[in-house]
Amino acid sequence: MLRVQNLSLTIAERILCANLNVNLEAGENWVILGANGSGKTTLLHTLAGLRAPNAGSVSLDNGEIGAIPARTRARRLGVLFQDVGSEFPATVLETVLTGRYPRLDRWQWESAQDYRVAEAALEAVGLAGLGQRPLATLSGGERRRVEIAALLAQDAPICLLDEPTNHLDLRHQVQVLDLLADRARRPGHLNVFVLHDVNLALRFGTHGILLFDNGEYLHGPLSDMLNRANLERLYHCRLREIRDDGSGWFLPA
């Protein structure tokens, strides 16, 4: 679905990654991990076609992603940004309906079906019944779930999500990631997450890209990469690994 070839990214004169080659396929949940400033968001935006690479290419369905018209691309690929921060005076339902925009013709208004899709997305994130609330009256965690509902309403088979658990309490972190990871099990669907919580990555991810702060990286199945040695190198801190029922969990030492 997404093909990365010889991708190199730099910020100022700092190399974030060089000659990255990886294929992201349907049915997979990819997680991008790295320390602050390692280039996770920059890589995600490049995968989305929002930033041109310094070298190499990203292809969506065999077409160079930057050359695909924005509306066409948005029907195939949706993006959840790290912080949306809109103060536009809108209701919750109106905000979720913005996710339907790529599905509408140029002068078309939302149909009854679009409203049903938006309301179903709100129910999926646990906000049923709040559609008429002004967005500004919601908590940070509720607004984050509204943003995720808008992404769900977009109904793009590929979702790129920058820290989707921002502002969410423990229960909603698990519920939202479970919901999103389950989507990737549908035919033709793929997720790419930026996460900071290694344990959530282990629980919900299938594959990953680890960005080290010297431009080096690892990619592949998370079960092969997420060990104490790699993570201590990634985050520059000592970790404890706890084993329980065959699962591993990592905590700062």
TrEMBL record:
Which Pfam families does the entry mention? ABC_tran
PROSITE patterns on file: ABC_TRANSPORTER_1 (PS00211), ABC_TRANSPORTER_2 (PS50893)
UniProt-listed Gene3D superfamilies? P-loop containing nucleotide triphosphate hydrolases
Q: Tell whether Membrane is among the UniProt keywords.
A: no
Q: Which domain of life is it from?
A: Bacteria
Write the record's keywords in alphabetical order, separated by commas. ATP-binding, Nucleotide-binding, Translocase, Transport
Query: What CDD domains does the record point to?
Result: ABC_Iron-Siderophores_B12_Hemin
A molecular function annotated in GO for this UniProt entry is: ATP binding
Q: Which residues form the ABC transporter domain?
A: 2-238
Q: What does this protein do?
A: Part of the ABC transporter complex HmuTUV involved in hemin import. Responsible for energy coupling to the transport system.
Protein's recorded name: ABC transporter domain-containing protein
Q: What is the lineage of its organism?
A: Bacteria, Pseudomonadati, Pseudomonadota, Candidatus Muproteobacteria
